[in-house]
Write a structure and sequence with these properties.
- There is one protein chain.
- By secondary structure, the chain is α/β, with parallel strands linked by helices.
- It has helices at residues 20-29, 77-88, 114-123, 142-158, 224-229, 246-266, and strands at 8-12, 34-40, 59-61, 70-73, 95-102, 129-134, 165-171, 182-184, 191-194, 197-200, 206-209, 212-215, 233-239.
- It has one domain: 3-Layer(aba) Sandwich (Stationary-phase Survival Protein Sure Homolog, Chain: A).
- 28% of the residues lie in helices and 25% in strands.
- Helix 1 (20-29) crosses helix 4 (142-158) and helix 2 (77-88) packs parallel to helix 3.
- The chain is globular.
Length: 267
């Protein structure tokens, strides 16, 4: 991208179009780029890359400040990106920015995140993406995150990551206090494990809220989990266009294929 060009950026999230995090994101980016917003009508946390097949999608215009074009969709973040690219936008965005999510998406929680799912949908189409999340469940003031959001996006627009790679960014706990800086990190191993909350319906049958609790692992010092715990904003470049385990492929290819060739001969 030319350094003199004003980029065109598509913004989405998984907390819903009325969440404060997406407004934080828009306010940080809009002074520097042309923006369009396409986000879920309601919260879709934990939906990952799920898409909607069993009911119709409805698109509604949503009023936004400074006449920024914005729409809500009764679907997931991935639905929003698909519909934005196929129906709503007249040109392909220079990048997709998602968030700011309420709650951390560090470690292996990226596999569940709808915030991340939106940018993966773009990355599959070779559109760069940035997923932003707060470790805090209550978003801190915009002033604590603003020095990082646009500079990170701008840097990687001017210094692109490989095609099919997006950046997963997390702000540390207590971001309203002093943030120590930014660390480009490796993906950590921590994740949320199920912790079902059993309750009893008035008619007597049990039901459950799935719930979850963080499971810590021994983390490398250069992981996103360790960086967040030390008070840094972390960014992890995650590559999704090639998911093959090449070591397993080369180790087993000939022996497993020979097994079935032998079985075919014996018939």
């Amino acid at each position: 991208m030319s350094k003199s060009k004003r980029p065109f950026i598509l913004i989405t999230n998984d907390d819903g179009i009325q969440a404060p995090g997406i407004r934080h994101l828009s306010q940080s980016i809009a002074p520097h780029a042309d923006v369009a917003i396409v986000a879920p009508q309601s919260e879709k946390s934990g939906c990952g890359m799920s898409i909607t097949w069993t009911r119709p999608l409805h698109i509604s215009e949503f009023p936004w400040e400074n006449e920024t074009p914005a729409w809500s969709i009764n679907g997931t973040p991935a639905d929003c990106i698909k519909m934005a690219l196929a129906v709503l936008l007249k040109k392909v965005p220079d990048c997709i920015v998602s968030g700011i999510n309420r709650g951390s998406n560090a470690g292996r929680t990226v596999l569940y995140s709808g915030t991340v799912g939106g940018v993966i949908e773009g990355a599959l189409k070779n559109i760069p993406g940035f997923a932003f999340s707060f470790a805090d469940l209550i978003p801190p003031p915009l002033t604590s995150t603003e020095p990082y959001i646009w500079p990170i996006v701008k840097y990687f627009l001017e210094n692109p990551l490989p095609s099919g790679t997006f950046l997963n960014i997390n702000f540390p706990y207590n971001s309203k206090d002093q943030i120590k800086g930014f660390r480009l990190a490796k993906q950590g191993r921590g994740y949320m494990v199920e912790s079902p909350d059993r309750r009893i319906h008035p008619e007597g049958a049990p039901y459950y809220w799935l719930g979850g609790k963080w499971v810590s692992n021994q983390e490398a010092p250069d992981s996103d989990v360790a960086g967040l715990e030390a008070g840094y904003v972390t960014g992890v470049p995650i590559h999704i266009s090639e998911l093959t385990d090449h070591e397993a492929f080369h180790k087993h290819k000939h022996s497993i294929e020979a097994l079935f060739e032998k079985a075919a001969v014996q018939k």
